[in-house]
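Why do we care about 3D structure at all? Because function follows from shape, and shape follows, mostly, from sequence. That is the central idea of this module. The next example makes it concrete: a single protein chain, its amino acid sequence, and then its structure expressed as tokens.
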Amino acid sequence: MLAWVLGGTAAVLVVITLANSLANINPARIAIVLRWAGLVALALLGAVLVVRRVPVLGFLAWSGALLIWRAMRRAAPAAPGGRTSSIDTEWVRMELDLDSGETKGVVLKGAFAGRRLESLSLPELRSLRDEARAHDPEAARLIEAYIARIHPDAAEEQDMPASPPAGMTRDEALAILGLEPDASPEEIRAAHRRLVQQMHPDKGGSDYLAGKINAARDVLLKDATA
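And the structure:
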């Protein structure tokens, strides 16, 4: 009798401990663990059934494991820093990390060719902007937007039109929104919302960059619904 009481008490304690542990685990992590457990269980079950000469049920179990694996691959988040939005001009290439919001770039032409934008001081950025105005006005606008984002207290009023040039290509639009060629309308709208939030004026955005993002959305949605 005493053994039953002690065994029951131990079982209750184990259940309470497991419940407390699960309560402190992120639900997303629990879901991942359960998916892996289901995948492994179905794979092992399939192997057992094949060994026991029930191949049809074995292959069904393996098919279930494969479906779980594919669902996990689709749901897996992108690696940090892996998703970027990019805008290329003749003089500069600028990138926005969609996960961290960090803005980077490289100078392609001019006195600072080959330099990273993030390595340039504020006077150097202004010099690059002034140099680009005569040769690549779009690059000059991007540099001005970069100055406003990285040095918000030092940004100056732009004396050039804020609207982006017409004639954006599909490839350029995909690069700006950081999308693949087969992106669906829902993915296009989601990428547009994400970038608009990143480019909010409170975060150092600009009317010019917002115009580029809106133009990219319009180009891709037009193609997607054509």
